[in-house]
Amino acid sequence: MACTQHGWQTEKLDLRPSDIKATDKDIRDFRRIRSQQRKTQLDHWQGTRLRKALVQINRALGSPWRIPLAGRAAVLGTYRSGAAVSARHGIGVATQFLEIFAEVMRSGILFEEYYLYQLYLPDRWRSRTRQFADDSQSYPAQQFLIERKRPSDFQLVLSKHLFAARCREAKLPSVPLLAEFVDGHPNGKLEGLPATDLVSKPANSGSGYGVESWRYDRGQDCFFNAVTNQRFSRDALYDHLCDLSSSICDLSNSRRVILQERLKNHAALAPLTNGALSTLRIVTCRTPSGSIDLMPPVIRMPAGRSIVDNFAQNGLAAPIDLATGTVCGAAVQMDNYLGQISTEKHPDSGQVFIGFGIPRWTQAVHLARRAHQTFSSLPFVAWDIAILQDGPVLLEGNPNFHTHVTLLPHGLTLSDTQFIPYYNYHWLN
Protein backbone atom coordinates (compact mmCIF):
# COMPACT_ATOMS: atom_id res chain seq x y z
CA MET A 1 0.00 0.00 0.00
CA ALA A 2 1.06 3.57 -0.54
CA CYS A 3 2.07 5.63 2.45
CA THR A 4 -0.73 8.10 1.91
CA GLN A 5 -3.69 8.40 -0.39
CA HIS A 6 -2.62 7.81 -4.03
CA GLY A 7 -1.17 10.88 -5.89
CA TRP A 8 0.91 13.71 -4.61
CA GLN A 9 0.74 17.45 -5.08
CA THR A 10 2.50 20.39 -3.39
CA GLU A 11 1.25 23.55 -5.04
CA LYS A 12 2.10 25.77 -2.02
CA LEU A 13 4.77 23.51 -0.54
CA ASP A 14 2.41 22.47 2.27
CA LEU A 15 3.19 18.85 1.38
CA ARG A 16 -0.45 17.77 1.35
CA PRO A 17 -0.96 14.63 -0.76
CA SER A 18 -3.62 14.76 -3.45
CA ASP A 19 -5.80 11.94 -4.69
CA ILE A 20 -4.85 12.11 -8.38
CA LYS A 21 -4.60 8.76 -10.11
CA ALA A 22 -5.52 7.25 -13.46
CA THR A 23 -9.20 6.66 -14.21
CA ASP A 24 -10.39 3.81 -16.41
CA LYS A 25 -10.65 6.30 -19.27
CA ASP A 26 -7.08 7.49 -18.65
CA ILE A 27 -5.88 3.90 -18.85
CA ARG A 28 -7.79 3.25 -22.08
CA ASP A 29 -6.35 6.44 -23.59
CA PHE A 30 -2.82 5.48 -22.53
CA ARG A 31 -3.19 2.01 -24.06
CA ARG A 32 -4.42 3.61 -27.28
CA ILE A 33 -1.42 5.96 -27.33
CA ARG A 34 0.99 3.08 -26.73
CA SER A 35 -0.65 1.09 -29.52
CA GLN A 36 -0.14 4.01 -31.90
CA GLN A 37 3.48 4.31 -30.81
CA ARG A 38 4.16 0.63 -31.45
CA LYS A 39 2.54 0.95 -34.87
CA THR A 40 4.86 3.85 -35.61
CA GLN A 41 7.82 1.66 -34.69
CA LEU A 42 6.63 -1.01 -37.12
CA ASP A 43 6.12 1.56 -39.86
CA HIS A 44 9.80 2.49 -39.60
CA TRP A 45 11.02 -0.92 -40.69
CA GLN A 46 8.27 -2.17 -43.02
CA GLY A 47 9.84 -0.79 -46.17
CA THR A 48 8.96 -3.60 -48.58
CA ARG A 49 5.60 -4.83 -49.77
CA LEU A 50 6.29 -8.23 -48.25
CA ARG A 51 6.92 -6.72 -44.82
CA LYS A 52 3.78 -4.62 -45.08
CA ALA A 53 1.77 -7.69 -46.05
CA LEU A 54 3.17 -9.67 -43.10
CA VAL A 55 2.34 -6.86 -40.67
CA GLN A 56 -1.22 -6.67 -41.98
CA ILE A 57 -1.63 -10.45 -41.66
CA ASN A 58 -0.31 -10.35 -38.09
CA ARG A 59 -2.74 -7.60 -37.16
CA ALA A 60 -5.67 -9.42 -38.77
CA LEU A 61 -4.85 -12.65 -36.93
CA GLY A 62 -4.23 -11.01 -33.57
CA SER A 63 -0.44 -10.80 -33.72
CA PRO A 64 0.44 -14.52 -33.82
CA TRP A 65 4.14 -13.59 -33.82
CA ARG A 66 3.77 -13.19 -30.05
CA ILE A 67 3.12 -16.91 -29.58
CA PRO A 68 6.77 -18.00 -29.92
CA LEU A 69 7.89 -14.93 -27.93
CA ALA A 70 5.44 -15.80 -25.15
CA GLY A 71 6.59 -19.41 -25.12
CA ARG A 72 10.24 -18.44 -24.99
CA ALA A 73 9.59 -15.91 -22.19
CA ALA A 74 7.68 -18.49 -20.14
CA VAL A 75 10.46 -21.06 -20.53
CA LEU A 76 13.26 -18.61 -19.64
CA GLY A 77 11.34 -17.08 -16.77
CA THR A 78 10.38 -20.32 -15.06
CA TYR A 79 13.81 -21.82 -15.67
CA ARG A 80 15.42 -18.89 -13.86
CA SER A 81 12.89 -18.10 -11.14
CA GLY A 82 10.21 -20.79 -11.07
CA ALA A 83 11.69 -22.93 -8.29
CA ALA A 84 12.58 -19.95 -6.08
CA VAL A 85 9.08 -18.43 -6.31
CA SER A 86 7.48 -21.81 -5.73
CA ALA A 87 9.58 -22.38 -2.62
CA ARG A 88 9.00 -18.88 -1.19
CA HIS A 89 5.36 -18.25 -2.15
CA GLY A 90 3.91 -21.64 -3.01
CA ILE A 91 3.05 -20.63 -6.59
CA GLY A 92 3.51 -23.64 -8.84
CA VAL A 93 5.94 -23.52 -11.75
CA ALA A 94 3.17 -24.53 -14.16
CA THR A 95 1.03 -21.62 -12.95
CA GLN A 96 3.93 -19.22 -13.45
CA PHE A 97 4.52 -20.60 -16.95
CA LEU A 98 0.89 -20.13 -18.00
CA GLU A 99 0.67 -16.65 -16.48
CA ILE A 100 3.83 -15.44 -18.20
CA PHE A 101 2.63 -16.85 -21.51
CA ALA A 102 -0.79 -15.22 -21.13
CA GLU A 103 0.58 -11.83 -20.07
CA VAL A 104 3.16 -11.68 -22.84
CA MET A 105 0.37 -12.42 -25.32
CA ARG A 106 -1.83 -9.72 -23.77
CA SER A 107 0.56 -6.87 -23.05
CA GLY A 108 3.99 -7.80 -24.35
CA ILE A 109 5.49 -7.74 -20.85
CA LEU A 110 9.02 -9.05 -20.31
CA PHE A 111 9.33 -12.11 -18.09
CA GLU A 112 11.73 -10.15 -15.87
CA GLU A 113 8.93 -7.66 -15.24
CA TYR A 114 6.49 -10.44 -14.33
CA TYR A 115 8.80 -11.31 -11.44
CA LEU A 116 9.95 -7.76 -10.63
CA TYR A 117 6.34 -6.60 -10.11
CA GLN A 118 5.49 -9.93 -8.42
CA LEU A 119 2.55 -10.57 -10.71
CA TYR A 120 2.67 -14.18 -9.52
CA LEU A 121 1.00 -13.07 -6.27
CA PRO A 122 -2.79 -13.58 -6.59
CA ASP A 123 -3.82 -10.01 -5.70
CA ARG A 124 -1.31 -8.50 -8.10
CA TRP A 125 -2.26 -10.92 -10.86
CA ARG A 126 -5.89 -9.85 -10.51
CA SER A 127 -4.93 -6.15 -10.80
CA ARG A 128 -2.54 -6.64 -13.73
CA THR A 129 -4.79 -4.74 -16.15
CA ARG A 130 -3.86 -1.55 -14.25
CA GLN A 131 -0.17 -2.46 -14.29
CA PHE A 132 2.17 -0.91 -16.84
CA ALA A 133 5.63 -2.44 -16.64
CA ASP A 134 8.61 -0.17 -16.93
CA ASP A 135 10.90 -1.43 -19.69
CA SER A 136 8.06 -2.58 -21.96
CA GLN A 137 5.65 0.31 -21.34
CA SER A 138 6.48 3.45 -19.36
CA TYR A 139 10.14 3.87 -20.36
CA PRO A 140 9.54 3.65 -24.14
CA ALA A 141 6.46 5.86 -23.69
CA GLN A 142 8.69 8.56 -22.22
CA GLN A 143 11.11 8.22 -25.13
CA PHE A 144 8.30 8.74 -27.60
CA LEU A 145 7.06 11.81 -25.71
CA ILE A 146 10.53 13.39 -25.71
CA GLU A 147 10.93 12.71 -29.45
CA ARG A 148 7.49 14.17 -30.12
CA LYS A 149 7.83 17.33 -27.99
CA ARG A 150 11.60 17.90 -28.34
CA PRO A 151 11.86 19.87 -25.06
CA SER A 152 14.62 22.47 -25.18
CA ASP A 153 15.93 21.44 -21.74
CA PHE A 154 16.37 17.76 -22.59
CA GLN A 155 20.08 17.83 -23.42
CA LEU A 156 20.78 20.26 -20.58
CA VAL A 157 19.49 17.72 -18.07
CA LEU A 158 20.69 14.58 -19.85
CA SER A 159 24.35 15.64 -20.12
CA LYS A 160 25.91 15.98 -16.68
CA HIS A 161 28.40 18.70 -17.68
CA LEU A 162 25.65 20.87 -19.25
CA PHE A 163 23.43 20.23 -16.25
CA ALA A 164 26.11 21.42 -13.84
CA ALA A 165 26.65 24.60 -15.84
CA ARG A 166 22.92 25.42 -16.01
CA CYS A 167 22.47 24.79 -12.28
CA ARG A 168 25.35 27.15 -11.57
CA GLU A 169 23.70 29.84 -13.72
CA ALA A 170 20.32 29.35 -12.02
CA LYS A 171 21.91 29.26 -8.55
CA LEU A 172 20.55 25.79 -7.86
CA PRO A 173 22.60 23.91 -5.24
CA SER A 174 24.34 21.13 -7.16
CA VAL A 175 27.59 19.21 -7.37
CA PRO A 176 30.25 21.31 -9.16
CA LEU A 177 32.55 19.79 -11.75
CA LEU A 178 36.22 19.74 -10.82
CA ALA A 179 37.34 18.68 -14.27
CA GLU A 180 36.17 17.18 -17.55
CA PHE A 181 38.03 14.78 -19.81
CA VAL A 182 36.99 14.65 -23.46
CA ASP A 183 38.35 12.30 -26.14
CA GLY A 184 41.49 11.52 -24.16
CA HIS A 185 42.32 15.02 -22.92
CA PRO A 186 41.24 17.39 -20.13
CA ASN A 187 38.72 19.93 -21.33
CA GLY A 188 40.42 23.18 -20.41
CA LYS A 189 43.36 23.93 -18.21
CA LEU A 190 43.92 21.45 -15.37
CA GLU A 191 46.87 22.06 -13.05
CA GLY A 192 46.49 18.69 -11.34
CA LEU A 193 44.05 16.52 -9.46
CA PRO A 194 42.83 18.00 -6.17
CA ALA A 195 43.94 16.38 -2.92
CA THR A 196 40.54 15.05 -1.85
CA ASP A 197 38.27 12.05 -2.34
CA LEU A 198 36.89 12.02 -5.88
CA VAL A 199 34.19 10.45 -8.05
CA SER A 200 34.43 10.01 -11.82
CA LYS A 201 31.63 9.03 -14.20
CA PRO A 202 30.71 9.14 -17.90
CA ALA A 203 28.83 12.37 -18.65
CA ASN A 204 25.89 10.65 -20.35
CA SER A 205 25.61 7.43 -18.34
CA GLY A 206 22.80 6.38 -16.03
CA SER A 207 21.89 3.81 -13.36
CA GLY A 208 25.31 4.12 -11.75
CA TYR A 209 27.15 2.50 -14.66
CA GLY A 210 30.75 3.59 -15.09
CA VAL A 211 30.98 5.38 -11.72
CA GLU A 212 34.32 5.06 -9.94
CA SER A 213 35.13 6.30 -6.44
CA TRP A 214 38.65 7.41 -5.51
CA ARG A 215 39.87 7.61 -1.91
CA TYR A 216 42.71 10.07 -1.40
CA ASP A 217 45.50 9.07 0.97
CA ARG A 218 47.19 12.21 2.21
CA GLY A 219 50.16 10.42 3.73
CA GLN A 220 51.09 8.71 0.46
CA ASP A 221 49.72 11.50 -1.77
CA CYS A 222 47.90 8.98 -3.96
CA PHE A 223 44.42 7.65 -4.75
CA PHE A 224 42.91 4.22 -4.12
CA ASN A 225 40.01 2.78 -6.09
CA ALA A 226 37.22 2.25 -3.55
CA VAL A 227 36.22 -1.12 -5.05
CA THR A 228 39.50 -2.72 -6.11
CA ASN A 229 41.77 -0.84 -3.68
CA GLN A 230 44.18 -0.39 -6.58
CA ARG A 231 46.69 2.38 -5.93
CA PHE A 232 47.04 5.28 -8.39
CA SER A 233 49.52 8.11 -8.22
CA ARG A 234 48.21 11.53 -9.25
CA ASP A 235 49.71 11.12 -12.71
CA ALA A 236 48.42 7.56 -13.07
CA LEU A 237 44.85 8.58 -12.19
CA TYR A 238 45.10 11.52 -14.57
CA ASP A 239 46.14 9.14 -17.36
CA HIS A 240 43.40 6.68 -16.38
CA LEU A 241 40.71 9.33 -16.72
CA CYS A 242 42.11 10.44 -20.07
CA ASP A 243 42.06 6.83 -21.28
CA LEU A 244 38.47 6.37 -20.09
CA SER A 245 37.30 9.41 -22.01
CA SER A 246 38.87 8.07 -25.19
CA SER A 247 37.36 4.59 -24.86
CA ILE A 248 33.72 5.37 -23.97
CA CYS A 249 31.22 4.29 -26.63
CA ASP A 250 28.75 7.17 -26.78
CA LEU A 251 26.10 7.56 -29.45
CA SER A 252 26.28 11.33 -29.03
CA ASN A 253 29.86 11.24 -30.33
CA SER A 254 31.00 13.12 -27.23
CA ARG A 255 33.24 10.86 -25.19
CA ARG A 256 33.35 12.69 -21.90
CA VAL A 257 34.21 11.81 -18.29
CA ILE A 258 33.43 14.22 -15.47
CA LEU A 259 35.26 14.48 -12.17
CA GLN A 260 33.57 15.60 -8.95
CA GLU A 261 34.37 15.70 -5.28
CA ARG A 262 33.10 12.67 -3.38
CA LEU A 263 30.16 13.82 -1.28
CA LYS A 264 29.25 12.77 2.25
CA ASN A 265 25.70 12.59 3.53
CA HIS A 266 24.27 14.53 6.45
CA ALA A 267 25.38 12.86 9.69
CA ALA A 268 21.79 11.88 10.49
CA LEU A 269 21.70 9.65 7.38
CA ALA A 270 24.78 7.63 8.33
CA PRO A 271 22.68 4.63 9.51
CA LEU A 272 21.17 4.31 6.02
CA THR A 273 24.43 3.94 4.11
CA ASN A 274 27.50 1.75 3.87
CA GLY A 275 29.61 4.91 3.64
CA ALA A 276 28.73 5.64 0.00
CA LEU A 277 26.28 8.38 -0.92
CA SER A 278 22.54 7.89 -0.36
CA THR A 279 20.14 9.99 -2.46
CA LEU A 280 16.47 10.88 -2.65
CA ARG A 281 14.56 10.07 -5.83
CA ILE A 282 11.89 12.74 -6.28
CA VAL A 283 9.93 12.65 -9.53
CA THR A 284 8.28 15.91 -10.55
CA CYS A 285 5.55 16.37 -13.17
CA ARG A 286 4.47 19.49 -15.03
CA THR A 287 0.69 19.74 -14.66
CA PRO A 288 -1.74 21.08 -17.29
CA SER A 289 -1.79 24.41 -15.40
CA GLY A 290 2.02 24.62 -15.42
CA SER A 291 2.50 23.93 -11.72
CA ILE A 292 4.80 21.20 -10.42
CA ASP A 293 3.39 18.03 -8.88
CA LEU A 294 5.31 15.27 -7.12
CA MET A 295 5.04 11.52 -7.44
CA PRO A 296 5.67 9.33 -4.36
CA PRO A 297 9.26 9.94 -3.19
CA VAL A 298 11.80 7.33 -2.10
CA ILE A 299 15.24 7.20 -0.57
CA ARG A 300 17.87 5.07 -2.28
CA MET A 301 20.58 3.48 -0.16
CA PRO A 302 23.85 1.73 -0.98
CA ALA A 303 24.59 -1.60 0.65
CA GLY A 304 27.39 -4.13 0.84
CA ARG A 305 30.43 -3.16 -1.23
CA SER A 306 28.50 -1.02 -3.70
CA ILE A 307 29.75 2.54 -4.23
CA VAL A 308 26.41 3.75 -5.65
CA ASP A 309 22.83 3.54 -4.43
CA ASN A 310 21.20 2.78 -7.78
CA PHE A 311 18.48 0.15 -7.87
CA ALA A 312 20.20 -1.51 -10.80
CA GLN A 313 23.43 -1.81 -8.77
CA ASN A 314 22.05 -3.77 -5.81
CA GLY A 315 20.86 -0.64 -4.00
CA LEU A 316 17.88 -0.46 -1.66
CA ALA A 317 14.89 1.86 -2.04
CA ALA A 318 12.44 2.74 0.75
CA PRO A 319 9.21 4.78 0.52
CA ILE A 320 8.97 8.25 2.06
CA ASP A 321 5.77 9.86 3.28
CA LEU A 322 5.65 13.16 1.43
CA ALA A 323 3.73 14.93 4.21
CA THR A 324 6.10 14.04 7.04
CA GLY A 325 9.43 13.22 5.37
CA THR A 326 9.71 9.90 7.21
CA VAL A 327 10.36 6.43 5.81
CA CYS A 328 7.00 4.70 5.86
CA GLY A 329 7.66 1.15 4.75
CA ALA A 330 10.19 -1.60 4.24
CA ALA A 331 12.96 -1.17 1.67
CA VAL A 332 12.95 -3.24 -1.50
CA GLN A 333 15.85 -4.60 -3.49
CA MET A 334 15.98 -6.29 -6.89
CA ASP A 335 16.57 -10.04 -6.78
CA ASN A 336 17.64 -12.24 -9.70
CA TYR A 337 15.24 -15.03 -8.80
CA LEU A 338 12.28 -13.57 -6.88
CA GLY A 339 12.18 -10.28 -8.79
CA GLN A 340 12.29 -8.24 -5.62
CA ILE A 341 12.83 -8.79 -1.92
CA SER A 342 12.00 -6.54 1.02
CA THR A 343 13.79 -5.87 4.27
CA GLU A 344 12.84 -3.98 7.43
CA LYS A 345 16.43 -3.03 8.35
CA HIS A 346 19.52 -1.82 6.55
CA PRO A 347 21.70 -4.91 6.00
CA ASP A 348 24.93 -3.14 7.02
CA SER A 349 23.90 -0.96 9.98
CA GLY A 350 20.79 -2.76 11.23
CA GLN A 351 18.86 0.55 11.20
CA VAL A 352 15.08 0.05 11.13
CA PHE A 353 13.58 1.84 8.14
CA ILE A 354 10.00 2.62 9.20
CA GLY A 355 9.77 5.91 11.09
CA PHE A 356 13.25 7.11 10.11
CA GLY A 357 13.11 10.88 9.55
CA ILE A 358 14.86 12.45 6.55
CA PRO A 359 16.78 15.62 7.54
CA ARG A 360 16.15 18.83 5.56
CA TRP A 361 13.12 17.20 3.93
CA THR A 362 11.15 20.37 3.14
CA GLN A 363 14.26 21.96 1.62
CA ALA A 364 14.75 18.89 -0.60
CA VAL A 365 11.18 19.04 -1.88
CA HIS A 366 11.51 22.75 -2.53
CA LEU A 367 14.75 22.15 -4.43
CA ALA A 368 13.10 19.53 -6.66
CA ARG A 369 10.30 21.93 -7.57
CA ARG A 370 12.70 24.81 -8.19
CA ALA A 371 14.78 22.56 -10.42
CA HIS A 372 11.79 21.59 -12.56
CA GLN A 373 10.76 25.23 -12.82
CA THR A 374 14.26 25.94 -14.11
CA PHE A 375 14.06 23.15 -16.72
CA SER A 376 10.39 23.84 -17.35
CA SER A 377 10.08 22.46 -20.88
CA LEU A 378 10.34 18.89 -19.61
CA PRO A 379 7.08 17.12 -18.73
CA PHE A 380 8.65 14.75 -16.19
CA VAL A 381 12.00 14.66 -14.39
CA ALA A 382 13.36 12.21 -11.83
CA TRP A 383 15.69 14.17 -9.56
CA ASP A 384 18.48 12.56 -7.55
CA ILE A 385 19.06 14.76 -4.51
CA ALA A 386 21.74 14.25 -1.87
CA ILE A 387 21.20 15.57 1.65
CA LEU A 388 24.55 16.95 2.86
CA GLN A 389 25.40 18.51 6.21
CA ASP A 390 24.84 21.97 4.74
CA GLY A 391 21.60 21.04 2.99
CA PRO A 392 20.27 19.30 -0.13
CA VAL A 393 22.06 19.43 -3.50
CA LEU A 394 21.08 18.22 -6.95
CA LEU A 395 23.15 15.28 -8.06
CA GLU A 396 21.47 14.88 -11.45
CA GLY A 397 18.17 14.96 -13.27
CA ASN A 398 16.74 12.17 -15.40
CA PRO A 399 14.34 13.31 -18.16
CA ASN A 400 13.70 9.66 -19.05
CA PHE A 401 13.67 7.40 -16.01
CA HIS A 402 12.69 3.99 -14.69
CA THR A 403 9.38 4.25 -12.85
CA HIS A 404 9.80 1.00 -10.88
CA VAL A 405 12.24 2.79 -8.54
CA THR A 406 9.27 4.91 -7.44
CA LEU A 407 6.51 2.31 -7.65
CA LEU A 408 7.95 -0.83 -6.04
CA PRO A 409 8.83 0.66 -2.61
CA HIS A 410 5.32 2.13 -2.32
CA GLY A 411 3.58 -1.02 -3.57
CA LEU A 412 1.86 0.97 -6.32
CA THR A 413 1.12 0.47 -9.98
CA LEU A 414 1.68 3.30 -12.45
CA SER A 415 -2.09 3.75 -12.58
CA ASP A 416 -2.13 4.67 -8.88
CA THR A 417 -0.10 7.82 -9.58
CA GLN A 418 -0.53 10.96 -11.66
CA PHE A 419 1.83 9.75 -14.36
CA ILE A 420 -0.73 8.38 -16.84
CA PRO A 421 -3.22 11.31 -16.81
CA TYR A 422 -0.37 13.82 -17.06
CA TYR A 423 1.29 11.78 -19.81
CA ASN A 424 -1.91 11.67 -21.83
CA TYR A 425 -2.26 15.44 -21.54
CA HIS A 426 1.31 16.14 -22.65
CA TRP A 427 1.02 13.71 -25.56
CA LEU A 428 -2.19 15.23 -26.88
CA ASN A 429 -1.41 18.92 -26.30
Would you kindly provide a written description of the structure presented here, covering whatever features stand out?
The protein is of the alpha+beta class. The chain folds into 3 domains: 1-23 and 132-175 and 263-429, D-amino Acid Aminotransferase, Chain A, domain 1 (2-Layer Sandwich), CATH 3.30.470.20; 31-129, no CATH class; 176-262. The protein contains 13 helices and 16 strands. The strands form 3 sheets. A 7-stranded antiparallel sheet has the order 2-1-7-3-4-5-6, covered by helices on one side. Strands 8, 9, 10, 11, 12, 15 and 16 form a 7-stranded antiparallel sheet that branches. Strands 13-14 form a two-stranded antiparallel sheet. The protein is globular. Mean pLDDT is 88; it is low at 1-12.
What does this entry show, briefly?
This protein is of the alpha+beta class and 429 residues long. The protein is built from 13 helices and 16 strands. The protein has three domains: 234 residues, ATP-grasp fold, B domain (D-amino Acid Aminotransferase, Chain A, domain 1, 2-Layer Sandwich); 99 residues, no CATH class; 87 residues.
How does the major sheet shape up?
Answer: 7 strands, antiparallel
Question: What best-fitting shape do the alpha-carbon axes yield?
Answer: globular
* Quantity of strands, as a count: 16
Number of domains: 3
Give me the CATH superfamily of the largest domain: ATP-grasp fold, B domain
Q: Mean of the pLDDT scores?
A: 88
Terminal residue distance: 32 Å
String of helices and strands? HHHHHHHHHEEEEEEHEEEEEEEEHEEHH
The number of helical runs is: 13
CATH architecture of the largest domain, by name, is 2-Layer Sandwich
